[in-house]
Amino acid sequence: MAHTESNGPADPLPPLAPAASRGGRWAQGLPAIWGDAWGRSAIRSAQALLVLTLVAVVIWALTRVPLVLTPIMLALILASAISPMVHWLARHRWPRTVAVLTSFVAILAVFGGVITGVVFLIRSQSKDLVSQADIGIDRLHGLLVQGPYPVTDAQINSIRDALQKFILSATFGNEALTGLRVAAEVAVGAVLMAVILFFLLMDGEKIRNFLLGFLPPAQRTKAHAAADHGAVVLGGYVRGTALVALTDAVIIGVALAIMRVPLTLPLAVFVFIGGFIPIVGATAAGTLAVVVALIFNGPVPALVVVIVLIGANQLEHHVLQPFLMGKVLRIHGLAILLALAAGTTLAGLVGALLAVPLTAVGWSIIKVWTGRTTAAAPSPGTPAPGAGPAADSRETAAGVQE
């Protein structure tokens, strides 16, 4: 076919060409309705809805198996916190198996010893507590009746009768059976968590390589860096939270001991556990200490405990958390509250415990994956959980920088 030249103006582009030139090659071949700005926005919206639907389905499926999901999450958190001890022992020429067993037995001994001590302490003081409780309840009754906002005996008796009816009702019996079932699930979950924790400490690197091996080769390096970064953030969060919770427990425990409030050690342990729920945990746990002080020791010691609780709360939020976790947990307070609300709605108390650390880890992984965080060498003793010699070449990508 002969080639003909034309000195006139160039032929106009097809109708879709302008949209394609503005939106990229992906728009070529689409009908005109999808090639303009509104069409591209509709396609992006549909993609976003599909992603959100997939995430919702995954979350729904995971919440259907809490007996499996919860032990895995708790084991990951504990492995991230304990792994520096394993690597410290390994650097001092301990065999890796011995280092893992030592760390594993140490953490189990700490938890078991605390729980056993609390149980025996409560049992040893049970008789004295019952007799003191009667006196304290009478004192509290007098405060309610003669206080600035008096409560009549009829109102108190109506509340007591309602409680008695609830205890004798079938609903309470069903709740008791549910409690027994939950206790059995907690026992099974604790055993499963211990087993998962041991294997994460022992073979964490092999497990991670197996899971990340399903990714395309071009994405594996970034995935390993994100996993290392997330492990550092998670371990730092757990250790920092533990120090903050321990400080709150010691302060409130000392105040309770000075006021001679019974069950000082169990209440301090309860405050320590509550400290793992950010913002509201330690305060809610300390409220129980205030109630016990009010019943057994009277209003003045209870007021002192309230003042100490407020002071410990201010120390936690303005000094301890910024100092211990300022470089680890870079999340706004509103995001923490929303994460707590979502976690509590989805999984109750366990969700409240796991919501903030998982949010922190997820955000750190997103920053690494999108290039917003430049990975650098982590501080000594903070490698990924279960990482062995094979991970040393990647540990230089596990730091926390903004």
Automatic annotation (TrEMBL):
GO terms for cellular component: plasma membrane. The keyword Transmembrane helix applies. GO terms for biological process: transmembrane transport. It comes from the Bacteria. The chain crosses the membrane at residues 42-62, 67-86, 98-122, 182-202, 237-258, 265-285, 291-312, 333-366. It is found in: Cell membrane. The keyword Transport applies. InterPro entries: AI-2E-like (IPR002549). Belongs to the autoinducer-2 exporter (AI-2E) (TC 2.A.86) family. This is AI-2E family transporter.
